[in-house]
Amino acid sequence: MNKLSKIAMLFVLFVLAASPALAAEPGSGSGSGGITFLAGSAFGAGLIVLGAGLGIGKIGATAVESMARQPEVAGSIQIAMIIAAAIIEGATFFGLIVCMVRS
């Protein structure tokens, strides 16, 4: 089974897990449909963190491979890796804040 099909199956699992909360009528539960928004925000936050983890993992793997091939440039590769990981983390925090504000 290749990586793309595993990711697709994981996405389908997330959608199926969130569907009961998203299918509820607004105002049918306790409160005014707050759990529906909470489930949507949690689903969005999960996707954001999953994407950030995959991105940072890819950066780390590629950087270590590059350092193994050319040890003399390890310092500059490490600096570039840290900068790229910081940019991904910043985008992740922005996405998480948007998910929390929207709920």
N to C succession of SSEs:
HHH
Low-confidence stretches: none
Q: What is the fourth-level CATH superfamily of the domain at 48-103?
A: F1F0 ATP synthase subunit C
Any idea of the CATH class of the domain at 48-103? Mainly Alpha
Shape: flat
Query: Which percent bin holds the helix content?
Result: over 70%
Give a short synopsis of this structure.
This protein is mostly helical and 103 residues long. It has helices spanning 3-23, 34-69, 74-102. It has a domain at 48-103: F1F0 ATP synthase subunit C (F1FO ATP Synthase, Up-down Bundle).
Write the layout of secondary structure elements.
Elements: H1 3-23, H2 34-69, H3 74-102
Helix pairs in contact: 1-2, 2-3
Would you kindly provide a written description of the structure presented here, covering whatever features stand out?
The protein is an all-alpha fold. It has a domain of 56 residues: F1F0 ATP synthase subunit C (F1FO ATP Synthase), CATH 1.20.20.10. 83% of the residues lie in helices and 0% in strands. It is built from three helices and no strands. Helix 1 packs antiparallel against helix 2 and helix 2 runs antiparallel to helix 3. The model has no long low-confidence stretch (mean pLDDT 79).
Labels describing this entry:
3 helices, 0% strand, F1FO ATP Synthase, 103 residues, single chain
